[in-house]
Amino acid sequence: MHIMLDLETMGTRASSAIIAIGAVGFDLDGIQSRFYGRISLESNLAAGRTVDASTILWWLDQSDDARYEFTQQAICIPIEQALRDFALFVQSHGSVGGMWGNGADFDCAMLADAYNQIIKIPAPWPFYASRDLRTLRAIGASVPRVQFTGTKHNALADAENQALHAIEIYKHLGMSL
Question: How far is CA 84 from the centre of its chain?
């Protein structure tokens, strides 16, 4: 099983506050499982995660539905809990064939940094399982993206759409996951 990960954050550095984790377990047959966690911004700041002004300004230009990720703190969980919950999600899949993120230095790297900094454990996937969707999209540039469904910049909707595109590229190239 492969997992597509998408984070919503308050910056682009590895130390940035993570306000949502969305992930789906997938194979060539489609999406098999889902994980979604909205995370308290306050818990991120208390743990020493950072915020970038340019990202806050970027969020202000996004839709109301997208901003819901961080404006409804009453429904958010502490980052420590989100990291533990996500580790259980990953472990429930047994051996992870690939932990996919949108960029070699973003989703997987940022989440691994949070595990190391906040709960002092390694990321719950093997380092060699990290995969980069941007590279796959460059290789499969001739494969059109699937029509986006859901709210853009909602971590779960982004992860689902990214996984569906990865599946289409693999199928188009005649490769197995």
Answer: 15
